[in-house]
Write a structure and sequence with these properties.
The complex is a heterodimer of chains A (593) and B (471). Chain A is built from 16 helices and 26 strands. By secondary structure, chain A is α+β, with helices and mostly antiparallel strands. Chain A folds into four domains: 4-73, Elongation Factor Tu (Ef-tu), domain 3, CATH 2.40.30; 82-98 and 210-444, Rossmann fold (3-Layer(aba) Sandwich); 120-193, RNA polymerase II/Efflux pump adaptor protein, barrel-sandwich hybrid domain (OB fold (Dihydrolipoamide Acetyltransferase, E2P)); 453-592, Bovine Mitochondrial F1-atpase, Atp Synthase Beta Chain, Chain D, domain 3 (Bovine Mitochondrial F1-ATPase, ATP Synthase Beta Chain, Chain D, domain3). In chain A, the strands form five sheets. In chain A, strands 8, 18, 19, 20, 21, 22, 23, 24, 25 and 26 form a ten-stranded mixed β-sheet that branches. In chain A, a hairpin with a 4-residue loop joins strand 3 (29-33) and strand 4 (38-46). In chain A, helix 7 (364-372) crosses helix 8 (404-412), helix 11 crosses helix 12 (488-505) and helix 15 (553-564) runs antiparallel to helix 16 (571-592). The N and C termini of chain A lie far apart (96 Å). Chain B is built from 14 helices and 22 strands. Chain B is elongated, with a radius of gyration of 25 Å. Chain B folds into three domains: 14-91, Thrombin, subunit H (Beta Barrel); 97-363, 3-Layer(aba) Sandwich (Rossmann fold), CATH 3.40.50.12240; 380-468, no CATH class. Chain B has helices at 3-17, 148-153, 172-182, 203-216, 233-252, 265-278, 292-300, 329-337, 346-350, 367-370, 380-404, 411-428, 438-449, 462-468; strands spanning 19-21, 25-27, 30-34, 43-48, 54-63, 66-71, 84-91, 93-96, 104-106, 122-125, 136-137, 142-144, 156-157, 164-166, 184-185, 192-199, 222-227, 257-263, 304-306, 312-320, 340-343, 363-364. The longest helix of chain B is centred in the C-terminal third of the chain and has 25 residues, at 380-404. Chain B is α/β, with parallel strands linked by helices. In chain B, a hairpin with a 2-residue loop joins strand 2 and strand 3. Classes of the chains: A alpha+beta (593), B alpha/beta (471). The interface between A and B is large, with 77 and 83 residues.
Chain lengths: 593, 471
């Protein structure tokens, strides 16, 4: 067995062990327990005793078993080969595990995250004598057709650095030395493609940058009403069956990030299989390449050990930060952060810590904050800019948004897409509630959006939000006295809102055309609906009955435009607008006489 | 295998032979024993009671000082000085065999019907091991249950886990029995087997299932694991695991399409709570242990299909919602793990509708990939979508009618009321012995939609209206 012996098992209680006779083990050190080689991490140290959480099933561990130290913290392996791969919570590649232990995941098996024998074609971008510093890019590797992997000097190398040797362009393995750099203090460091980084520590950056650009998702309700910035954070809470996972999938498929890290944290095995099956066949609307070419998956299904579930979130965000440091915009989907919080609770309970709300440990809000704070639009050490956006699903118990995980998450995210059970029951997808959701990024992305929409976005968004608010009040009246009691002008507001919901807010994830909606199409769709409202109101003032307006053929056309107008032919909506104006004029002229 | 491991093997058998006498504490199902050799976590234990009977148990907590053992078969009759224990050096296993079909066993897989337990083909750890997500095959084969509301609106797929959320006194057992009787995969002969696990249900309920299986002539294809209401509560926590261990063997080694029925999951969770409280663990919601989610996931996730294998395990767990409350921790956590849910409605039950399934909160997550052209019928996806949307509007209209009176409704709203009634009484309701084909179901759905004016149908295409609409 590898490594030095740092202690012996004293007590086993599920995934938490107590060890005694601890010598020089460090906090958060990665250890292997017993000759089964079960991976664990030291989470507490006290007077020669340690508490260890293990990442695999603890069956068979006995008091007296040896604990072997590894000398390092639980770290992620960072090198070309991550993209397109699928990992468990502690970054073991599942495809490799399948080769080692078959269809079910065996115990004590290990495999490195990337293939150490694969040759990559490295193109250097620096030469001997160049002055560099930590985070500088020394060359690149074509990782997938879509992603150029930039090889960086690890952020742990301090001082002014000078390149003393660099290899020629050619094929190398990830562990081969590519360059040798010498610091101003005379320290030599060998640089390869491979870096390790402790998953619980954020990777350093030079500075924060502003969040001005939205993460375009192609989902109308998000982009138009509740946009998210690149580098922003958002929570998607919703009870079971409200479509959290579907929304996450849709964003992972169509958003304009360069890299996607999809963390299936304590979710269903079949769902991960669905992603694995579907993503390679889907093409990115911007590049025409397979979506797998920009995606890293972490599948820690709900029946895998709970400690690995706790770690999976950090593994994911560390990989995201690594690609951010190369200058990419990375989006993380974490589905679901509640499962991660529950893992914290379970482990905390096993360690017999004093619980706070609903059995969650008192440090829950701190951990949530630390996680979301790793998002951001950053100036990297290498001199570029990159971003990490975090989209975290929350599964509130009983669908109650006041429970601890949801309420604490709300404190640390700046956008909130609340899913509504009533909408989901009516199969209104995405079931994002327009009344409960908000985004604090609307101001920050205003300039970008207005630049894309001939300055109409802010004003139009404001108009439709007001209509939706009015609708709520009118609905209350309707519930009491029935729709006939309202004048046509108010009934028309209900009509327009209902049209807005079916024609704009709803989006069919399985329809070839509707599943992705370009910014231009969204802008035009919103403006034609508002135009319909203006013209309709005028017509009603002229005395046209509401029924007549409702029965216009053009209204049917507007309802179906999300399916009938493709992103390449958005001018069709302009034609529709002309048709609308003509029909309304005709109708008006009949009643004016 | 080197000499080192060989030595350990002999060590193990030597230690397994060692007997310890005298427990230090007995508390509910838990027995504590001090001064033992190092005992492994989850190890299987034989407990010899003072009267000589042998019971099995499992190590829950082990330290160099004391071992805590949970005794599956109850601790009554044990005393401190004379209780003996053997630690067997391996986790709880089940000897699996195809011959277990047609047999009745207890929660641990021991014979309950008097006959010998069949010789096992393999010993399996009942806790199972997680399936590698890359080895899974995404389930998409439609199972026709012959029940319109399930086939049409929340289609069951092979390899799915789809629980029934019921309440006390509703017909969940009848529905489960009907599904067992009628379930078939279309267009192919398939080798069905049923594994039935009963946790804490009354003898009559178990008897109902046995009789119903006998009547249909499927009894030879059913393996039953019964842990009835008067059996020790701890046995219940093992029952679903034993049942699923056999199910996995039948599916992935024998290539059978296995349907696992587990009733009642609420009792299972109650047992977990009982043990957790006895161990003095910190409770989370409503006194249930913090690991309830992980624990339920270990059960529910053991369903699915594996690439390159013909078999599948499909789970149909039944749970009664305490006080019909769907936000209670048990249905709530279950819903987060399973691939949808079939929800019973007290109000529909009161109106005499069988099966009393409210389709609005019900859902089948795997349905989207298992229906449509080539699987059920091309119009199925849009049709079910439209039925959901229209039926959901019916609820709004009914609410309105209860305030302003039915007479005040508009003509269109009257149509919706009519549609709602037809949908519940003709489409959802059916006889206990009525087996409808998917075509009949879909045609019935169109018949319901034909009550509404065509322009109200926004979720179906014009061509589909042309072909099926008869308004």
């Amino acid at each position: 067995m590898q490594g030095r012996i740092v202690g012996k098992v004293k007590r086993v209680n599920g995934p938490v062990l107590t060890a005694s006779g601890i010598t020089d083990a460090q906090m958060m050190e990665l250890v292997h327990v017993s000759d089964l080689g079960i991976v664990g991490e030291i989470v507490k140290l006290r007077e020669g005793e340690a508490t260890i959480q293990v990442y695999e099933d603890a069956t068979g561990i006995k008091p007296g078993d040896n604990i072997y130290g590894s000398g390092m913290s639980l770290s992620a392996e960072l090198a070309p080969g991550l993209i397109g791969n699928i990992y468990d919570g502690i970054q073991r590649p599942l495809e490799e595990l399948k080769k080692l232990s078959g269809d079910f995941i065996g115990k004590g098996i290990a495999a490195s995250a990337v293939d150490h024998d694969k040759l990559w074609h490295f193109v250097p971008s620096v030469s001997v004598g160049d002055k560099l510093h930590k985070g500088s890019i020394i060359g690149s590797v074509q990782e997938t057709e879509r992603v150029v992997h930039r090889v960086m000097i690890p952020p742990t190398v301090e001082g002014e650095l000078v390149v003393s040797s660099i290899v020629a362009e050619g094929d190398y393995r990830v562990r081969d030395e590519l360059a040798l750099v010498i610091s101003d203090k005379g320290k030599k460091t060998s640089v390869s493609m491979l870096q390790y980084w402790p998953i619980r520590r954020p990777r350093p950056v030079a500075d924060h940058a502003d969040l001005r650009e939205p993460l375009v998702t192609g989902l109308r309700v998000i982009d138009t009403l509740f946009p998210l910035s690149k580098g922003g954070t958002v929570a998607i809470p919703g009870g079971f069956g409200t479509g959290k996972t579907m929304t996450q999938h849709a964003i992972a498929q169509w958003c304009d990030a360069d890299i996607i890290v999809y963390i299936g944290c304590g979710e269903r095995g079949n769902e991960m299989t669905d992603v694995l099956r579907e993503f390679p066949h889907l093409t990115d609307p911007r590049t025409g390449l397979s979506l797998m070419q920009r995606t890293i998956l972490i599948a820690n299904t709900s029946n895998m050990p709970v400690s690995a579930r706790e770690a999976s979130i950090y593994t994911g965000v560390t990989m995201a930060e690594y690609y951010r440091d190369m200058g990419y915009n990375v989006a993380i989907m974490a589905d679901s952060t509640s499962r991660w919080a529950e893992a914290l609770r379970e482990l905390s309970g096993r360690m017999e810590e004093m619980p706070a709300e609903e059995g969650f440990p008192a440090y829950l809000p701190t951990r949530i904050a630390q996680f979301y704070e790793r998002a951001g639009h950053m100036k990297t050490l290498g001199g570029g800019e990159g971003s990490v956006s975090i989209i975290g699903a929350v599964s509130p118990q009983g669908g109650d948004f006041s429970e601890p995980v949801t309420s604490h998450t709300k404190r640390f995210v700046r956008a909130f897409w609340g899913l509504d059970r009533a909408l989901a029951s009516a199969r209104h997808y995405p079931a994002i509630s327009w009344l409960e959701s908000y985004s604090e990024y609307t101001d920050e992305v205003k300039d970008w959006w207005n630049g894309q929409s001939q300055n109409s976005w802010s004003a139009n968004r404001q108009k439709i939000m007001e209509l939706l608010q009015k609708e709520v009040r009118l609905q209350q009246i309707v519930k009491l006295v029935g729709p006939d009691a309202l004048p046509d002008s108010q009934n028309f507001i209900l009509e327009v809102c209902s049209l807005f919901k079916t024609a704009f807010l709803q989006q069919n994830a399985f329809d070839e055309i509707d599943r992705y909606c370009s910014i231009e199409k969204q802008t035009k769709m919103l403006s034609i609906i508002l135009r319909y409202y203006e013209l309709g109101l005028e017509a009603i003032q002229k005395g046209v009955p509401l029924v007549k307006i409702r029965r216009l053929q053009v209204v049917q056309d507007i309802t179906k435009m999300r399916f009938s107008v493709s992103n390449d032919h958005v001018d069709d909506i302009d034609k529709l607008e002309l048709k609308l104006e003509r029909s309304m004029m005709q109708l008006g002229s009949i009643y004016e006489q | 295998m080197n000499s080192d491991t060989l030595l350990k093997e002999t060590d193990k058998s030597l230690l397994a032979g060692r007997e310890y006498t005298g427990a230090s504490r007995i508390d509910g199902p838990l027995v504590y024993m001090r001064h033992t050799h190092p005992v492994g976590y989850n190890e299987l234990v034989e407990i010899v009671a003072p009267d000589g009977t042998i019971r099995s148990g499992q190590v829950l907590d082990t330290s160099d000082d004391a071992v805590c053992v949970q005794c599956f078969e109850g601790t009554d009759g044990l005393n401190l000085p004379d209780t003996k224990m053997h630690f067997l050096g391996e986790p709880l296993t089940l000897g699996v065999s195809e011959k277990m079909l047609g047999r009745v066993m207890n929660g641990l897989g021991k014979s309950r019907d008097g006959a010998e337990v069949p010789a096992s083909e393999d010993e399996r750890d009942v806790n199972g091991v997680p399936m590698n997500p890359t080895a899974r095959e995404y389930p998409r084969d439609f199972i026709q249950t012959g029940i319109s509301v399930i086939d049409g609106m929340m289609t069951l797929i092979q390899g799915q886990k789809l629980p029934i959320f019921s309440g006390n006194g509703m017909e969940h057992n009848q529905l489960a029995a009907q599904i067992v009787r009628q379930a078939k995969v279309r267009g192919g002969k398939s080798d069905f087997a049923i594994v039935f696990a009963a946790m804490g249900v009354k003898y009559d309920v178990a008897k109902y299932f046995i009789d119903s299986f006998e009547e249909t002539g499927v009894l030879d294809n059913v393996a039953m694991f019964l842990s009835l209401a008067d059996d020790p509560s701890l046995e219940r926590t093992i029952t679903p695991r034993t049942a699923l261990t056999l199910a996995e063997h039948l599916a992935f080694d024998k290539g059978k399409q296995v349907l696992v029925i587990m009733t009642d999951m609420t009792n299972y969770c109650e047992s977990l709570r009982e043990i957790s409280t006895q161990r003095g663990e910190i409770p989370s919601r409503k006194g249930y242990p913090g690991y309830l989610y992980s624990n339920l996931a270990e059960i529910y996730e053991r369903s699915g299909k594996i690439q390159g294998k013909t078999g599948s395990t499909t789970q149909l767990p039944i749970l009664t919602m305490p006080n019909d409350d769907i936000s209670h921790p048990i249905p709530d956590l279950t819903g987060y793990i399973t691939e949808g849910q079939i929800v019973f409605d007290r109000d529909m039950h009161g109106r005499g509708i069988y099966p009393p399934i409210n389709c609005l909160p019900s859902l089948s997550r795997l349905m989207k990939d298992g229906i449509g052209e080539g699987m059920t019928r091309a119009d199925h996806p849009h049709l079910s979508n439209q039925l959901f949307a229209s039926y959901s509007h019916v609820q709004e209209v009914r609410n309105l009618a209860s305030v302003i009176g039915e007479e005040e409704l508009t003509e269109l709203d009257h149509k919706y009321m009519e549609f709602g009634d037809f949908f519940e009484k003709k489409f959802v309701a059916q006889r206990f012995d009525e087996d409808r084909s998917i075509e009949e179901t879909l045609d019935l759905g169109w018949q319901a939609l034909s009550i509404l004016p065509a322009e109200e149908l926004q979720r179906v295409t014009d061509e589909e209206i042309e072909e099926h609409y008869k308004g």
